[in-house]
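Quick one before lunch.
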Amino acid sequence: MKIEGSVALVTGANRGIGVAFCRALLARGAAKVYAGVRRPEDFAEPGLEPLRLDVTDPEQIAAAARTASDATIVINNAGIQAGPSLLEGSLDGARQELEVNYLGTWAVSRAFAPVLAANGGGALVNMLSVASWRSTKRFPSYAASKAAQWSVTNALRVALREQGTLVVGVHVGWVDTGATAGVDEPKTDAAEVAAQTMDAIARDEPEVLVDETARRVRAALSGPLDLIYPTG
Ligand SMILES: NC(=O)c1ccc[n+]([C@@H]2O[C@H](COP(=O)([O-])OP(=O)(O)OC[C@H]3O[C@@H](n4cnc5c(N)ncnc54)[C@H](OP(=O)(O)O)[C@@H]3O)[C@@H](O)[C@H]2O)c1
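Model of the NAP complex:
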């Protein structure tokens, strides 16, 4: 679909990959970009329309769908990594990850599906991860939440086909944001994630494999398990 002239909404828009999505949308000629943020009073990025949106709050989601009733692109970017390691720690953070990453994405998507339909179909983009396909002992619940988010993305892709909505899943390994400040691994720039996602929207492509990690793990899904979880 054409990004020029579109009206977009991005969740978790105040920092990290979210703000990169907003900037990329404006750079590609979006007419309006709603920045879904939890605290609009603290948000001052120029050129955007701040919108109060906690993706775990049903009333805020319903209000956002009324305010952004002209949206033609919705990007579910908001996400957290808050869970315990595999064998110890409270499971509260794991539940919170499911609330935000999985159920938040689902709730925003179902609220905006009729909006996108009314505006000609448009595009729904879900910010997933290589963790949708590969778990780790350090972040097992984050990976589970991303696997669930990927699953609902696929259901949405099928369900919204009839109304002409392009559903895009974005997968990547480490990205350089505040969330990964403590990670000492090669990281992709958030602007690169946003640029490749814009290209996918413009070309009507349903999946973005941003980096080599995402491409390798995606390809390995059809091979033996030790391609994803090496035993050596
Ligand atoms: N960084 C990576 O390596 C990486 C890799 C693959 C996928 N991802 C995914 O990319 C997305 C963005 O990640 P990031 O690295 O940019 O994270 P980040 O810098 O930690 O930013 C997270 C964003 O989500 C928002 N958020 C958290 N809980 C929310 C809620 N309940 N309602 C609405 N917004 C909420 C945060 O808002 P506040 O400022 O109010 O907390 C913030 O804007 C996430 O879905 C993440 O899982 C990240």
